[in-house]
Amino acid sequence: MSQHRVTRRGRRIGLTVAAAATAAAVTGVMVIPSASAAEVPVGNGGYSDTRPPGTSGPTDNVGNPVLPQVTDAVADQPVPTNDWWSSLVFKRYGDNPYSQPMYGHPLTYQAVAGGLEVGYPTDYSIVGEGRQYEYVHTADLTLGVSGLNSGDVKADGWSDWTVNPYWSDGDRELRATIGHGLPFVYAEASGGDAEITTNGTPEVFSDDGNIIGVTVAGNHYGLFAPSGSDWNVSGTSISAGLGGADYYSVAVLPEPEALDTYSQYAFSFVTGSEVSWDYDTDAGEVRATYTLETEAREGSETGTIQALYRHQWLHSDDTMLDYEYVSPRGAMKIREGNSFTTSQSVPGVLPVLPETDALDDGRLAGYIAEVLGSDDPFEGAVDTYWTGKQLGKLAQLVTIADQAGDTASRDELLGLIKDRLEEWFTVGGPAEFSYDSDWSTLTGYPASYGSDTELNDHHFHYSYFVMAAAIVAQFDASWAEDSAWGGMVKELIRDTANPARDDEQYPFLRGFDIYAGHSWAAGHQGFAAGNNQESSSESINLSVGLIMWGSATGDDELRDLGVYLLTTEAESIRQYWFDADQEVYPSDYEHPVVGMVWGSGGAYSTWWTANPEEIHGINVLPVTGGSLHLATDKGAIERNLEHLVEQNGGPFEEWRDLLWEFQALADPDAAKAAYDADNDAYEPEAGETRAHTYHWIHTMAATGAPNTDITADSPTAAVFEKDGNRTYAAHNYSGSEQTVTFSDGTTLTVPAQSSATSNG
Fold first, then answer.
1. Which pLDDT does position 21 carry in this prediction?
2. Closest Cα partner for 207 from 182, 230, 186?
């Protein structure tokens, strides 16, 4: 839900033995529960298997504890949360045991007592004083079984981007398969005839017995019953006897003429979905393949039809049909086949910007000393979010101090970070992590912004912990060993971005929606507009942390996972948060950016303020060497900031540091001029420091903005360009010298465990 951050104008407010064995298998750490089973040791630290006294786990909206609503078939599997369909398992409202609207695209869904509502919204509304555009779910059809009146709906299975809602009233059962990019709904029914209720009298445009085409509310559908059956249309009811079979399917058609094409695949039922990725370091590319598993219910056809989002089809060479679907993410293109592959250039990340002679060493040292000399470098933070922000702030200073040769400050900063991480990684102190076996999740207490009761924002909060730990690992490999504190870092990674599908404790890639290409913030998806994500940049922070942690610890699996997540989500952000190609938002939507993406659309807003500066800034923070991807489309940055000034009624005042840093990714000279004119009159954003802002803006003014057209055979390398002169930078985490090759042919020799800079 991401209801975090109140601006500084108002001051920010705010196991079992089996489980232990699983953790040992994944992390490499032998985990032995204490005799009381209250603590699960992990290396030098650990987590509790019961919540601290006085705290809460997941609840409904009035505070009643809730458990995952799943069938016995999947009761022993880690339950996914933070997904596009999570309201099926997390019942946020006690009076609704079914679901909220779920936005699969192109179809939308909502579970009700009589079955599954299905819609295809092609018209949008602009609401909220022009701030939000939305394609709202409206039922065209309700798929069910004659007489079905289920008291609730549960999840009966799931895969990477599909889910199986399940209904039963004791006499009748319905199980459906729905998913992102699926124009088909696959139904398994028993106890009665297939029955479809329509929103208004349907117009039948084709009738071939068991296959008919109907138009409902202006949308076209194909209805497919088993061979030998006949659909009967009576008013707003369409029914078919299933005979000895137990299946039927429905597809939304891009136009009536597509019925014949879709009929070929009507009985090839999707049974699962899976993504695989490969990071080709030499080419500087990530290739991802999205595959649907199918089963022929009759005949021999096992192919299917998929609809691809813009961030997918822009990067795929696979053949598409001429048809398209409308969606809140722009046009979806259609492909025949069980799989497609995307290929994208990897945006580089750096632990620190290139070394230049543009900085005043004394001024920089003074800024760092200002942080270290404060009464509390953590600014009173106690919960996971605000502690994370402060960890991230200090971590960015570590690499700057190291680059400046200020090893004393570097080591003092590292000590602060280690102490605070170790405090959180130790049970029984003022802060700890607790594993909830019912919800298959690790929650930090003190919690904040619903990270406990709603399972919100874990990927936001923990991203800072992982990033800070990665910086520690860069300088202290022994601290990051699994047997020391690295095992607990991996627990946070397993909770938020678990790479293992067979893990018994945590679901696969909890927060990241594989097909949508970005993460979701709300654990329960308990909104009429679907799920939402506000701070896409804090989600990116986790991916960058994975790259750096994996590189620093030699864990190529986690490094490559981070590369896949960063590369995929960076393009989704470019398209859906910043509308960089100006092809996604409705033509009469007046804002060129959104602060929040919803399942139904997007909104120029945040959870806590309508102030334009924070609406724009929330998808920038934190600014790190993982923010360079934002420079891919400098025109989008310029439009973004021009609109901010227009909406603000003048230059930005709050979060100036963040916004100058953002501006520097497109126009470093303009950012430096604004920064220099301020003369340190601004108040740093809570996760920023004067040292970092000074270093970022003056460095980039010297090197120029990132040139993201040039890639490298290392994920921790980047190129900057000013007036045709290029600066090449890379960090080598390994213990031996490395030669980094850039796509323009330039090579850079980087000493072991060091950064290097060259002008080519």
1. 34
2. 230
Catalytic status, residue 555: no
| Alpha-carbon span 9 to 280, nearest angstrom | 47
Q: Are strands 725-732 and 115-119 parallel, antiparallel or unpaired?
A: unpaired
Reference 83, options 394, 436, 383, 511; nearest CA is: 511
Could you give the maximum distance between any two Cα atoms of the chain, in Å?
A: 85
Question: Structure tokens of 233?
Answer: 């249309």
User: Is 16 a residue whose pLDDT tops 50?
Assistant: no
User: What Cα–Cα distance (Å) separates residue 619 from each residue in 213, 593, 596, 638, 759?
Assistant: 44, 10, 9, 15, 31
What 3-state DSSP class applies to 758? strand
Give the β-pairing of 747-750 and 738-741.
Answer: antiparallel
Amino acid at 755: S
Q: How many CB atoms lie within 10 A of CB 512?
A: 25
Beta strand segments in 152-301, E: 153-158, 162-168, 173-179, 184-190, 194-198, 203-207, 211-216, 219-224, 232-234, 237-240, 247-253, 268-280, 285-296
**93 Cβ contact partners less than 8 Å away, ≥ 6 residues apart:** 60, 61, 526
Residue of 195, 402, 534, 613 with catalytic role: 534
674 alpha-carbon distance from chain centroid: 33
Return all residues near 374 (Cβ < 8 A) that are at least 6 apart. Answer: none
Measured in whole angstroms, the distance separating CA 377 from the mean position of its chain's CA atoms is 30
The residue type of 535 is S
Burial of 2 from C-beta contacts in 10 A (0-12 / 13-18 / 19+): buried
257 contact partners, CB below 8 Å, separation of at least 6: none
Cα 504 to Cα 41, 58, 495: the distances in Å are 18, 20, 12
And the tokens for 594?
């959104």
Res. 38 pLDDT band, cuts 50 70 90: confident
Distance of CA 168 to the CA centre of its chain: 33
- Whether residue 534 lies in the annotated active site: yes
Task: Phi first, then psi: give them for residue 536, nearest 5 degrees.
Answer: -60, -30
Q: Locate tokens 């310029």: which residue?
A: 638
Cβ–Cβ < 8 Å for 115, 308: no
Amino acid identity at 557: E
Residue 384 has pLDDT above 60, yes or no: yes
Share above pLDDT 90 across residues of the chain, in percent, rounded to a whole number: 95
- Whole-angstrom distance, CA of residue 458 vs CA of residue 499: 16
Q: What is the pLDDT of residues 258-307, one digit of tens each?
A: 999 999 999 999 999 999 999 999 999 999 999 999 999 999 999 999 99
Structure tokens at 480: 């990051």
Catalytic residue among 457, 482, 633, 713: 457
Rounded distance between C-alpha atoms, residue 13 and residue 249, angstroms: 50
Angstrom distance (rounded) from CA 648 to CA 611: 8
With vertex at residue 740, the alpha carbon angle to CA 736 and CA 744, rounded to the nearest 5 degrees, is 170
Strand partners, 718: 729
CA distance 73 to 94: 24
Measure the CA angle with vertex 207, ends 203 and 209; round to 5°.
Answer: 135
Of 33, 366, 308, nearest to 179 by C-alpha is 308
452 labelled catalytic? no
Residue 195 half-sphere exposure, CB side, CA atoms within 13 Å?
20
Please state whether the peptide bond connecting residue 446 to the residue before it is cis, i.e. omega within 30 degrees of 0: yes
Nearest to 149 by CA among 176, 117, 166, 172: 172
CA 418, CA 396: separation in Å to the nearest integer? 14
Q: Which of 39, 195, 495, 538 is catalytic?
A: 538
Q: Which of 441, 496, 432 is nearest to 466 (CA)?
A: 496
Q: Exposed, middle or buried, 95 (CB in 10 Å: 0-12/13-18/19+)? A: exposed
pTM confidence score: 0.94
pLDDT confidence tier of residue 13, bands split at 50, 70 and 90: very low
What average pLDDT does this structure show over 692-704? 98
Cα distance between residue 213 and residue 626, in whole Å: 50
The whole-angstrom separation of Cα 563 and Cα 349 is 10
Predicted pLDDT at 614: 97
- Tokens found for residue 756: 């290097």
